[in-house]
Amino acid sequence: MDEHLSPLEEQERSLDPDDWAAFRARAHSMLDAALDHAEGVRDGAVWTPMPEDVKAALAEPVPMDAQGTDKVCEDLLARVLPYATGNTHPRFLGWVHGAGTPGGIIADTMAAAMNSNLGGRDHGAIYVERQVIDWIKKLFDFPHTSSGLVVSGTWDTPWWGLKISPVINYRSGAPFNVTLGIDDNAVNLAGVDTQGRLLPDGFAQERPAGLARNTGANTPISLVNQIREEWCNDTVMVDGNAEPTEQLATPCLPAYDGTLEEQNFFQVDVRVGRAFGMGDSQVEAFVQIFNLFNRANRGYVDGAINSRNFGKPLTLVGPPRIVEMGVRFGF
Length: 331
Fold this sequence. Notes:
The protein is 26% helix and 16% strand. The protein is α+β, with helices and mostly antiparallel strands. Strands 1-2-5-6-7 form a five-stranded antiparallel sheet, with no helix packed on it. The chain has a two-stranded antiparallel sheet with strand order 3-4.
């Protein structure tokens, strides 16, 4: 209690800063420090152990009087920030920890400013969470009646001291490479080989006129189908002989009505662990599940216009569901 205030004045005292301008300046300086840390993290060590004198400095008696914002911020910068977990470093390996993003600094700042409780009522954060859950339901073809919760980082569950760490990886599909599927000019940019013969540049290099590599999203579907229709009246090599395609047993290519982009990638990994004490040592048993929902993330797309598989993914770019179990000892 402030000795200069009466009990009533103490009760009515606001939790707001006494000086908003000074608080704003300090908040800006802390944001700069956070961004400097994020920008320069790759230039330092992956992990820096906390020195014993710093640990001792943190083990101070309970402060019975207010320390002030400046003092707390200075302690954070000197005694905490330099000794992070290390998971934001690009060389951090071996744990299912999210690396975080610079954008997350802004998001967490806004979340702290709003301090929303998503347990109910009618406010903006509720609708953001509902929208994210709806996106997840569509990505995984969950029933429209399903529901869920949005969590991040490590979540302490109320069950047996278990900790859950989810990682969600999403990226949109890129335009794939649309080609003619034939070696139309049979000449490489290199020109000729050592014996003066023309070099074929391969069917993967031949694209419709005016198209560059990976411009599928900007390629009109009408152009693709026009070429597929023309291919029906063209000739192909069969046992070394040129024959019209309409004379082959295989019918002409059907019109393509799909997209010209790869499939979106979406994968959920989760780690569940529980720590136990064993004398002076720490033991943690854990289970890690990669691709929790066993989603088939498909990759390389057949971009040859003259192929019956045109627009279809040919490979998988993510793992099937993988379960790993282990024990970690700290001593």
